[in-house]
Write a structure and sequence with these properties.
The complex is a heterodimer. Chain A is about 0% helix and about 50% strand. Chain A is built from no helices and 11 strands. Chain B is built from no helices and 11 strands. In chain B, the strands form 2 sheets. In chain B, strands 2, 4, 5, 9, 10 and 11 form a 6-stranded mixed β-sheet that branches. In chain B, strands 1-3-8-7-6 form a 5-stranded antiparallel β-sheet, with no helix packed on it. Classes of the chains: A mainly beta, B mainly beta.
């Protein structure tokens, strides 16, 4: 089975722009979660999608949004980019069987740099 | 909200020495997971602990879940250079229908050969 695929691998944007990141989960996985990773803050939860619905959300401003498609692929969007948005954005998929916690499979991430 | 604290933040050891990282939650957890992230890589699942007082072993790695289900530890015996990386714990709260995993900030382990 192919792993979790994230595109693009690297992105350079300027302040004020917007960006869309893509994530293709492992085949058969229905849940997709997004995390922001920075050296100082570790892994910060952004949101989780299951069956095209946002099931959980972290404490990020409304500039961060996401969606999930019927094939479980997910996108996240960041509008009006700020310098502090520079980070590694990780997508993780899981089976989504509704268990309290499932093993997460992470993609390689998208490294976003905001100049 | 739920907080998961991990100590130490960094640990440098000589190859062959033991290593332990500790994870503490502000609330009772339903379960806890551990992940390893190699430098330049992405987190990879190691194990999940569910029961109070549970102990699991994977070769040189020993994972423990506290009796109160508020803390956990990962112990590596006789470290090797392949153990280098950041170890994260991640917990899920025991109340409600919150599926969100809260990650600790991780412990970066470096090993001097």
């Amino acid at each position: 089975k192919a792993g979790v695929t994230q595109t693009p691998r690297y992105l350079i944007k300027t302040r004020g722009q917007q960006v869309t990141l893509s994530c293709s989960p492992i085949s058969g996985h229905r849940s997709v979660s997004w995390y922001q990773q920075t050296p100082g803050q570790g892994l910060q939860f952004l949101f989780e999608y299951f069956s095209e619905t946002q099931r959980n959300k972290g404490n990020f401003p409304g500039r961060f949004s996401g969606r999930q498609f019927s094939n479980s692929r997910s996108e996240m969007n960041v509008s009006t980019l700020e310098l502090g948005d520079s980070a590694l954005y990780l997508c993780a998929s899981s089976l989504g069987q509704g268990l309290r916690a499932e093993k997460l499979f992470f993609g390689s991430g998208t490294q976003l740099s905001v100049l | 909200g739920q907080q998961v604290m991990q100590i130490p933040q960094y640990q440098h050891v000589q190859e062959g020495e033991d290593f332990t990282t500790y994870c503490n939650s502000s609330t009772t957890l339903s379960n806890i997971q551990w992940y390893k992230q190699r430098p330049g890589g992405h987190p990879v699942f190691l194990i999940q602990l569910v029961k109070s007082g549970e102990v699991k072993k994977q070769k040189r790695l020993t994972f423990q879940f506290g009796e109160a289900k508020k803390n956990s530890s990962l112990h590596i015996t006789a470290t090797q250079t392949t153990d280098v990386g950041t170890y994260f714990c991640a917990g899920v709260g025991s109340g409600g229908s919150n599926y969100k995993l809260t990650f600790g900030k991780g412990t970066l382990l470096t090993v001097n050969p």
